[in-house]
Fold:
Amino acid sequence: MSRPVAALPMTALIGNPKPHSRTRTVALATAAALHSRLTHCPTPVGPPTVIDLAELTAELVGQGSRPETLDEVLEAVRRPGLLLVASPTFKAAYSGLLKLFVDVLPRGALTGVVAVPLMTAARSGHRHVVDTYLGALLAEVGACVPTAGLCLLEREFDTAEVGIERWLDRAAPAVVDALAVVPGVPAEPGVSRR
Structure:
């Protein structure tokens, strides 16, 4: 009889400078769908911890009174597991707030992290930004980005669940495979770790 595998941590990092943004709403729906889809996979993930950078702006620019909070957030993001990173599209790229946060991370900080990029956009011409810029940024700091990211347009927000589920049908197998080789996750007996 095999022991149950402990759930890996899952973090949803939201890089919209506006509190309670529509990007946050989409990110929370995506995180919930990911959790639901990955709960019973061989390497399950736990419920998402939400980090909204809009609540940490002062700490990121060195003007806040809670530097220990920023340290805790940096630690949470760097833990081996699943990291959903969400940003609105600003000037055909991710938000400056998200870039500021990533710039605080040392090189290779996300080694052992499986990252999933998510962006919201106003125009369909910006769909490519999620992979071209955000996915590339996450890979640059060491994350494994196993699948194309999700970009939802503003006109799709009312039916976001449909787009999220379609994306998950394509993305979930690659995410499951990537989670299976996260450092520190014991292999099941008789299962190759590749």
Observations:
- The two ends are 23 Å apart (CA to CA).
- Residues 75 and 179 are 19 Å apart (CA to CA).
- The chain has a mean pLDDT of 90.
- Strands lie at 8-14, 45-52, 81-88, 113-121, 150-153.
